[in-house]
Amino acid sequence: MPASKGDVPMYLRRLRDLREDHDYKQEYVASILKITRQQYQLYESGKRSLPIDKLIDICNLYSVSADYVLELKNEL
Asked: What is the tally of structural domains in the chain?
């Protein structure tokens, strides 16, 4: 089970870290996911669950595995 702090899964931090490591703005990631920036912000903040199809798109965008994003593995 991924580490969590309170009710917020720690993988949400990984989403933000990946975006910031690539110098992407939320607007850019949202455009790739074909959603609004506000919708993406809800995913990144944990206020909405990330659908599996968007997780796949994020993995493709950053060339990482879902295991990495979900913190099931620490290797890319």
From this structure: 1
